[in-house]
Amino acid sequence: MARVPDKIKLIDGSRETLKLSVRITDLWFIGIPEKFEQAEMVVVDSDGDEIHVVCKQDQLKSWKADLKENLTYVMHNFKVMKNDGKFRICDHEYKLCYTGVTVVRQCNMEHLPFRKFRFVDFSTVIAGHFETGLLVDVIGVVDEVVFRYVS
User: Fold this and answer.
1) Most confidently modeled of 10-14, 108-112, 115-119, 132-136?
2) pTM of the entire structure?
3) Where in the chain are the domains?
4) What is the CATH superfamily name and number for domain 8-114?
5) Which residues, other chains included, contact 38 with Cβ-Cβ below 8 Å and sequence gap of 6+?
6) Residue ranges of the Replication protein A 70 kDa DNA-binding subunit B/D first OB fold domain (predicted)?
7) Which among 78, 100, 116, 151 could bridge 48 via Cys, Cβ 3.0 to 4.6 Å?
8) Dist CA 22 CA 107 (whole Å)
9) Residues 6+ apart with CB under 8 A from 100
10) Which residues pair with 139 in a beta bridge?
């Protein structure tokens, strides 16, 4: 019997043998192609929960051609890290990093949602009730990504 996929909201750093069924909702590359480059992405599970995933340079060659926005995948085995950087992509407490044993397999899972926007009332922002350093929007522009965040 196939193992039931883990849920993103239940990732707590206690294990790294995760099996996730996800859709890549955002995918971007950082660095200089063919020199230093890493992929970063936001994935969403069937509950609409999101987590930040990083594929560093040493793993990127294996996966770069296979990773595409809006496609669905089953992914296994990550390094689970605290999501405590200066600027965070998702509000999940953890982020995932590909390792040498990470397995990624594209699967057709149309039931997985696309990005769910979580709009906040403007008065909440004006009142200062927000989390500093959390990226709240990514706007794609040809050959450029503009980051907007509340600080």
Assistant:
1) 10-14
2) 0.76
3) 8-114, 119-151
4) Nucleic acid-binding proteins (2.40.50.140)
5) 29, 30, 31, 54, 55, 56, 57, 60
6) 18-107
7) 116
8) 9
9) 58, 59
10) 146
